[in-house]
Amino acid sequence: GSRESAGEVICFGTQVRVYVEPLQAALEYYNEGYAAAMASGDVTLAALNKAFKYGNSFFAGANLEIMRQECAEVIKFMDQRRTVILMIQAQYGQNSMLSLIGTDEEPKHVSDEELKILATNNAVMTTYYYQKTYTSFMFRSYDDTKNYTEKYLACISNTWANLFLHHAYHAFYVGLVSFWLARKSRDEQIWHEWGEKYKLALKKWAESSLWTFENKWLLLEAEDSFCNNDFEAAKTYYEKAVSSAKDHKS
Question: Which of 2, 15, 90, 204 is most exposed, with minimal Cβ within 10 Å?
Protein backbone atom coordinates (compact mmCIF):
# COMPACT_ATOMS: atom_id res chain seq x y z
CA GLY A 1 0.00 0.00 0.00
CA SER A 2 0.88 3.67 -0.03
CA ARG A 3 2.12 3.63 3.57
CA GLU A 4 4.53 0.80 2.88
CA SER A 5 6.03 2.65 -0.09
CA ALA A 6 6.09 6.12 1.48
CA GLY A 7 9.73 5.83 2.56
CA GLU A 8 10.77 4.90 -0.96
CA VAL A 9 8.70 7.62 -2.62
CA ILE A 10 10.07 10.32 -0.31
CA CYS A 11 13.65 9.04 -0.62
CA PHE A 12 13.84 8.96 -4.41
CA GLY A 13 11.37 11.78 -4.96
CA THR A 14 13.61 14.10 -2.95
CA GLN A 15 16.56 13.17 -5.17
CA VAL A 16 14.58 14.59 -8.08
CA ARG A 17 13.25 17.61 -6.15
CA VAL A 18 16.74 18.91 -5.42
CA TYR A 19 17.25 19.39 -9.15
CA VAL A 20 14.52 22.05 -9.10
CA GLU A 21 14.34 23.25 -5.47
CA PRO A 22 17.03 24.76 -3.19
CA LEU A 23 19.08 21.90 -1.81
CA GLN A 24 19.05 23.21 1.75
CA ALA A 25 15.25 23.31 1.81
CA ALA A 26 14.89 19.69 0.71
CA LEU A 27 17.07 18.06 3.38
CA GLU A 28 14.30 17.65 5.95
CA TYR A 29 12.30 15.47 3.57
CA TYR A 30 14.77 12.68 4.27
CA ASN A 31 13.77 12.68 7.94
CA GLU A 32 10.20 12.02 6.84
CA GLY A 33 11.40 9.28 4.49
CA TYR A 34 13.41 7.67 7.29
CA ALA A 35 10.42 7.70 9.67
CA ALA A 36 8.11 6.24 7.02
CA ALA A 37 10.60 3.51 6.13
CA MET A 38 11.11 2.51 9.77
CA ALA A 39 7.34 2.48 10.34
CA SER A 40 6.96 0.00 7.49
CA GLY A 41 9.93 -2.09 8.66
CA ASP A 42 12.13 -1.34 5.64
CA VAL A 43 15.56 -0.96 7.21
CA THR A 44 17.41 -0.64 3.90
CA LEU A 45 15.29 2.33 2.79
CA ALA A 46 15.64 3.88 6.24
CA ALA A 47 19.43 3.61 5.88
CA LEU A 48 19.25 5.04 2.35
CA ASN A 49 17.29 8.08 3.56
CA LYS A 50 19.97 8.63 6.20
CA ALA A 51 22.73 8.23 3.62
CA PHE A 52 21.16 10.70 1.21
CA LYS A 53 20.57 13.27 3.94
CA TYR A 54 24.17 13.00 5.12
CA GLY A 55 25.59 13.22 1.60
CA ASN A 56 23.32 16.08 0.55
CA SER A 57 24.12 17.99 3.77
CA PHE A 58 27.82 17.75 2.88
CA PHE A 59 27.07 19.13 -0.59
CA ALA A 60 24.98 21.91 0.97
CA GLY A 61 28.01 23.09 2.93
CA ALA A 62 27.07 21.95 6.42
CA ASN A 63 29.57 22.48 9.23
CA LEU A 64 32.12 19.66 9.10
CA GLU A 65 32.34 19.18 12.87
CA ILE A 66 28.56 18.75 13.03
CA MET A 67 28.72 16.45 10.03
CA ARG A 68 31.41 14.40 11.76
CA GLN A 69 29.02 13.44 14.57
CA GLU A 70 26.10 12.85 12.22
CA CYS A 71 28.22 10.65 9.97
CA ALA A 72 29.33 8.51 12.91
CA GLU A 73 25.68 8.01 13.88
CA VAL A 74 24.70 7.10 10.32
CA ILE A 75 27.48 4.52 10.06
CA LYS A 76 26.57 3.07 13.48
CA PHE A 77 22.95 2.68 12.35
CA MET A 78 24.04 0.94 9.15
CA ASP A 79 26.45 -1.34 11.01
CA GLN A 80 23.78 -2.41 13.49
CA ARG A 81 21.26 -3.09 10.71
CA ARG A 82 23.89 -4.80 8.50
CA THR A 83 23.29 -2.60 5.47
CA VAL A 84 26.90 -3.29 4.57
CA ILE A 85 27.17 -1.76 1.11
CA LEU A 86 25.66 1.54 2.22
CA MET A 87 27.88 1.52 5.31
CA ILE A 88 31.05 1.03 3.26
CA GLN A 89 30.13 3.90 0.95
CA ALA A 90 29.37 6.13 3.95
CA GLN A 91 32.76 5.26 5.42
CA TYR A 92 34.53 6.43 2.26
CA GLY A 93 32.75 9.77 2.60
CA GLN A 94 33.68 9.85 6.27
CA ASN A 95 37.36 9.34 5.42
CA SER A 96 37.26 12.33 3.06
CA MET A 97 35.58 14.48 5.69
CA LEU A 98 38.14 13.54 8.35
CA SER A 99 40.93 14.43 5.93
CA LEU A 100 39.41 17.87 5.35
CA ILE A 101 39.04 18.47 9.09
CA GLY A 102 42.63 17.37 9.67
CA THR A 103 41.77 15.07 12.55
CA ASP A 104 43.99 12.31 13.90
CA GLU A 105 40.97 10.02 14.15
CA GLU A 106 41.65 6.73 12.41
CA PRO A 107 39.08 5.29 9.98
CA LYS A 108 37.40 2.03 10.98
CA HIS A 109 39.34 -1.12 10.15
CA VAL A 110 38.28 -2.55 6.81
CA SER A 111 37.25 -6.21 7.02
CA ASP A 112 37.93 -8.89 4.43
CA GLU A 113 34.22 -8.83 3.57
CA GLU A 114 34.37 -5.10 2.86
CA LEU A 115 37.49 -5.50 0.71
CA LYS A 116 35.72 -8.21 -1.31
CA ILE A 117 32.72 -5.93 -1.84
CA LEU A 118 35.02 -3.12 -2.99
CA ALA A 119 36.65 -5.45 -5.49
CA THR A 120 33.38 -6.78 -6.94
CA ASN A 121 30.70 -4.08 -6.55
CA ASN A 122 30.94 -1.34 -9.18
CA ALA A 123 28.84 1.17 -7.22
CA VAL A 124 31.10 0.80 -4.18
CA MET A 125 34.19 0.99 -6.39
CA THR A 126 32.85 4.18 -8.01
CA THR A 127 32.30 5.79 -4.60
CA TYR A 128 35.78 4.78 -3.47
CA TYR A 129 37.55 6.20 -6.51
CA TYR A 130 35.46 9.38 -6.46
CA GLN A 131 36.31 10.06 -2.81
CA LYS A 132 39.98 9.36 -3.49
CA THR A 133 39.84 11.72 -6.49
CA TYR A 134 38.16 14.39 -4.37
CA THR A 135 40.63 14.32 -1.47
CA SER A 136 43.68 14.03 -3.77
CA PHE A 137 42.49 17.09 -5.68
CA MET A 138 41.74 19.06 -2.52
CA PHE A 139 45.32 18.52 -1.41
CA ARG A 140 46.61 19.05 -4.99
CA SER A 141 48.37 15.71 -5.28
CA TYR A 142 48.79 15.51 -9.04
CA ASP A 143 49.77 11.86 -9.47
CA ASP A 144 47.08 10.54 -7.12
CA THR A 145 44.43 12.82 -8.60
CA LYS A 146 45.16 11.70 -12.14
CA ASN A 147 45.32 8.03 -11.16
CA TYR A 148 42.08 7.99 -9.19
CA THR A 149 40.20 10.12 -11.73
CA GLU A 150 41.08 7.68 -14.51
CA LYS A 151 39.82 4.79 -12.37
CA TYR A 152 36.64 6.69 -11.48
CA LEU A 153 35.92 7.42 -15.14
CA ALA A 154 36.44 3.74 -15.98
CA CYS A 155 33.89 2.80 -13.30
CA ILE A 156 31.16 5.18 -14.44
CA SER A 157 31.36 3.89 -18.00
CA ASN A 158 29.64 0.77 -16.62
CA THR A 159 26.82 2.45 -14.69
CA TRP A 160 23.28 3.49 -15.56
CA ALA A 161 22.48 7.19 -15.77
CA ASN A 162 20.10 8.54 -13.13
CA LEU A 163 19.21 11.69 -11.22
CA PHE A 164 20.86 11.00 -7.86
CA LEU A 165 22.24 14.31 -6.65
CA HIS A 166 25.69 12.96 -5.90
CA HIS A 167 26.17 12.28 -9.60
CA ALA A 168 25.72 15.99 -10.32
CA TYR A 169 28.29 16.86 -7.67
CA HIS A 170 30.63 14.20 -8.99
CA ALA A 171 30.29 15.86 -12.41
CA PHE A 172 31.14 19.24 -10.89
CA TYR A 173 34.25 18.13 -9.03
CA VAL A 174 35.51 15.85 -11.80
CA GLY A 175 34.96 18.79 -14.15
CA LEU A 176 37.19 20.95 -11.95
CA VAL A 177 39.74 18.15 -11.75
CA SER A 178 39.70 17.70 -15.52
CA PHE A 179 40.43 21.34 -16.27
CA TRP A 180 43.20 21.30 -13.63
CA LEU A 181 44.74 18.18 -15.15
CA ALA A 182 44.43 19.70 -18.64
CA ARG A 183 46.71 22.53 -17.53
CA LYS A 184 49.28 20.18 -16.01
CA SER A 185 49.15 17.00 -18.07
CA ARG A 186 50.58 16.04 -21.43
CA ASP A 187 47.11 14.72 -22.28
CA GLU A 188 45.69 18.24 -22.34
CA GLN A 189 43.07 17.64 -25.05
CA ILE A 190 41.61 14.53 -23.43
CA TRP A 191 41.20 16.18 -20.04
CA HIS A 192 39.86 19.37 -21.58
CA GLU A 193 37.16 17.35 -23.36
CA TRP A 194 36.13 15.75 -20.06
CA GLY A 195 35.97 19.18 -18.44
CA GLU A 196 33.80 20.54 -21.25
CA LYS A 197 31.47 17.55 -21.04
CA TYR A 198 30.81 18.14 -17.34
CA LYS A 199 30.61 21.90 -17.81
CA LEU A 200 27.75 21.42 -20.28
CA ALA A 201 26.02 19.03 -17.87
CA LEU A 202 26.14 21.63 -15.09
CA LYS A 203 24.88 24.30 -17.49
CA LYS A 204 21.86 22.13 -18.28
CA TRP A 205 21.10 21.48 -14.62
CA ALA A 206 21.45 25.20 -13.85
CA GLU A 207 18.49 25.80 -16.16
CA SER A 208 16.27 23.88 -13.72
CA SER A 209 17.85 25.13 -10.50
CA LEU A 210 19.91 28.31 -10.42
CA TRP A 211 20.02 27.97 -6.65
CA THR A 212 21.98 24.71 -6.59
CA PHE A 213 23.86 24.62 -9.87
CA GLU A 214 24.45 28.09 -11.35
CA ASN A 215 27.57 28.96 -9.35
CA LYS A 216 29.10 25.57 -10.14
CA TRP A 217 28.45 25.90 -13.86
CA LEU A 218 29.95 29.42 -13.85
CA LEU A 219 33.04 28.18 -12.03
CA LEU A 220 33.55 25.50 -14.69
CA GLU A 221 33.14 28.18 -17.36
CA ALA A 222 35.87 30.15 -15.60
CA GLU A 223 38.17 27.13 -15.51
CA ASP A 224 37.50 26.45 -19.20
CA SER A 225 38.32 30.05 -20.12
CA PHE A 226 41.49 29.88 -18.03
CA CYS A 227 42.56 26.72 -19.89
CA ASN A 228 42.01 28.60 -23.17
CA ASN A 229 44.17 31.51 -21.94
CA ASP A 230 41.17 33.84 -22.07
CA PHE A 231 41.98 35.44 -18.74
CA GLU A 232 39.48 38.31 -19.01
CA ALA A 233 36.60 35.89 -19.56
CA ALA A 234 37.93 33.69 -16.75
CA LYS A 235 37.97 36.65 -14.36
CA THR A 236 34.40 37.58 -15.31
CA TYR A 237 33.14 34.04 -14.81
CA TYR A 238 34.97 33.68 -11.48
CA GLU A 239 33.32 36.86 -10.23
CA LYS A 240 29.90 35.72 -11.44
CA ALA A 241 30.38 32.34 -9.74
CA VAL A 242 31.22 33.99 -6.41
CA SER A 243 28.25 36.35 -6.74
CA SER A 244 25.88 33.48 -7.56
CA ALA A 245 27.14 31.42 -4.60
CA LYS A 246 26.49 34.35 -2.27
CA ASP A 247 23.06 35.03 -3.73
CA HIS A 248 21.99 31.40 -3.43
CA LYS A 249 23.87 30.58 -0.23
CA SER A 250 25.46 27.61 -1.93
Answer: 2
